[in-house]
Amino acid sequence: MENPLQQYFRSPGAFIKLPSMGKFYKTPPKLSIDGELAVYPMTAEDEIWLKNPDTLLNGEGLKKIIKSCTPDIHDIDEVPIADADVILIGARLATYGEEFDVTSECPECKQSTDYTFKLTEILSNVKEIDKTPIVEISELKVYLQPSRINIQTKIAMASLEYQMMLRELDTSKTDNKKQLQIMTEYSTKLTKLNFENLRDGIIKIDMPDGNHVGTPEHILEWLKNITKPEYDKLQGALEELNKSGTDLTYDAECQGCKHKYKTAISSDPISFFA
Predict the structure, then answer these.
(1) Residues contacting residue 32 through CB under 8 Å, at least 6 positions apart
(2) Rounded distance, CA 270 to CA 51, Å?
(3) Among 17, 122, 131, 224, which residue has the least CB neighbours within 10 Å?
């Protein structure tokens, strides 16, 4: 039996343009005729996830909020990082309104200054990722795509576990040899995930002879056998791609010493929804 109260359920509170425009998904999200994604206000249950810092830090809370607020996305694990930031802005707009207050500390005199931004203006400046970046490594052309939220969640969870383990070792009586073994295991896990993240960010590699390589295992083996500067070049390009789409930087001026500087609105869920 259909719930007679269904007509009073929440409705979309914002419509946003995704930087990816639905590309880079195996199953593209349902968009409006104007190419926009419907974003619903958060529920009381979503608020509970926001009050659990560990759940947010390990990425699971973030995924639950995105799933709740954007039901037209079929698989949350496929969401590119650039899209996730914009979705969070849309969720805050749909839930709390367009004004967003930020406090910035002056790097010179340490005095704090308050600013108010309109989230609608930030969303109106979202830029589409209109072409796939190509990075040249030796004679190879490497085609990149944004990192997905699933691998970023795994990295965040492993990092949180690592920090918790370090705190536990500080207060435990574990001998030095055992401590080193545990730290090595976690470091190996984080290294593995970072390699997988970069591998997943590569669509294909063009070779000089005209052949293409897209097999994940082959790409991962290649990543483990290139130089550190070459790896850093790829990693840097992927990080820039993940940050594309929306610019959260702004010009600030200290009310005390009048120092002018650039800073950014944090998209960290804990502070963004506080």
Answers:
(1) 15, 38
(2) 8
(3) 131
Answer left, alpha or beta for residue 168, where phi above 0 means left and psi between -120 and 50 means alpha: alpha
Strand-pair partners of 141: 136, 206
Q: Please, are residues 46 and 64 in contact by the beta-carbon 8 Å criterion?
A: yes
171 pLDDT exceeds 70?
Answer: no
Helix (H, G, I), strand (E, B) or coil at 39: strand
Q: Return d(Cα 3, Cα 63) in angstroms, integer.
A: 27
Q: What's the confidence (pLDDT) of residue 32?
A: 92
- Bridge partners of 186? none
pTM: 0.82
**For the residues of 94-138, what is the DSSP string, one character each?**
HHH-SEEEEEEE-TTT--EEEEEEEHHHHHHT-----S--EEEET
Percentages helix, strand, coil for the chain (3-state, rounded to 5) are 45, 20, 35
Q: In angstroms, rounded to a whole number, what is the distance separating the alpha carbons of residues 92 and 47?
A: 11
> How far is 81 from 5, CA to CA, in rounded Å?
35
